[in-house]
Design goal:
The complex is a heterodimer.
Chain A: H1 13-16, H2 24-35, E1 39-44, E2 49-53, H3 55-61, H4 65-68, E3 97-102, E4 108-120, E5 123-132, H5 134-155, H6 158-177, H7 182-211, H8 220-228
Antiparallel strand pairs in A: 1-2, 1-5, 3-4, 4-5
Helix pairs in contact in A: 5-7, 6-7
Chain B: H1 3-12, E1 15-20, H2 25-38, E2 42-47, H3 52-61, E3 70-73, E4 89-91, H4 98-111, E5 117-122, H5 124-130, H6 133-149, E6 153-159, H7 165-174, E7 177-180
Parallel strand pairs in B: 1-6, 1-7, 2-3, 2-5, 3-4, 5-6
Helix pairs in contact in B: 4-6, 6-7
Chain lengths: 229, 191
Amino acid sequence: MQEQGTDMPEKKGLIEGGAVGEAGPVDLFRTVFERIQTAILVIDPAAHRIVDVNPLMESLTGFGRDQLLGSTCHGFVCPARFGECPVTDLHRDTLNAEREIINANGKRVPVLKTVAKAEIGGREYLVESFTDITDRKRAEERQLALIAFLSESILRARKPLEIMQQDFEQLAAQAKSGDYDAEEIRMQLQVHANNLRQILTNIEDLQKKALEGRSDEIPPEFREFFKRT
Amino acid sequence: MDAQTATEDAAESLLCLLLARPENVPEMNLLVMKKILKSGCTPLVVTVNKPCKVLAKMYEKEGISPDSYYVIDAVTQYSGGVCIPGSRVKYVTNPSNLTDLGIAITELLKKMPAGKKCIMFDSVSMLLIHIPSVTASKFLHFVVTKLKLTDVSGVFLCAEKGLDPVILSQMSSFVDHITDFEKIGADTCIL
């Protein structure tokens, strides 16, 4: 059955529909390449050299087009070392994989990376696309901080409070029985008064850390546990 | 783990993290103390919860003589109480003073007569009021290492579910057993 509406120009796409006019498909794809909101590198896999970049790649890395073109990718924008290219040497598929690129300040920027092989003009190239996930990572770190500090607040308050509640009940029973040493009762009450003050200080400190998202203070063990679960 | 397995495992333990419901923690202290004495060990009680004067009275009511154990007390000074000097007691200013706590443990273990010794730490849960969990974990690792090197047993009391999974997993890697107090029968040997 013939698809309905295939004669309509908008169903043929821009090239077949003739909308690109005299400019032709090359200009169309160049415009898309330059305007797309994904950073793109085109790599010559034999030499590991960058042969083309789009403007978003320039803004993502902080390097100008002139600096990028002709440069080797490893150790420049890619943290992989020579001989350890994940695509050409290690033959790994890279599809929306969380990776990092190195920007002009030497800082690692978290990205989602996809590498596709493409034949252009009879030669094979790697088309590498990158989406900056810095904001997402920041949100994840903030969420991790909130959970970690909330968990620590509960841990350092709940069970001690339950133990103290039991102690208070015992102290009340002792006081009721009349069989007690006043100094012993005072000492235990003072210990718990100090404990309660310390618990409040802990909660305030942990709340402050959680609100400030101080994820750098989260122990690596907790970070690993959080990732696993 | 069923009660029988817990019992058998606990019987072989040198280092044990003993978990109980918060309302059973005081009872757990007393029971462990009796079991340590019954096993022929000399107990060293490290308390970050009750002053030694209160503990001594509690033990005395149960027929435990003050001459049968040693104490490191990290709360009497913290409560503003009077630290009565004695050859069997060492005081630490407060439970967060881990340096002095570590030194006191080392010194008192050396001072104790030769023979089987066992530390009872009361309690990990209350220690967490005074120091972050990561610091507590490191400190307990330090204590456990010291105990292993000197062939001293140890029972660490803790309220159940009073440790987060990360600390519990770390603790499980450096104690021999984690045992539920409620699953241990009255005749079970802890050590």
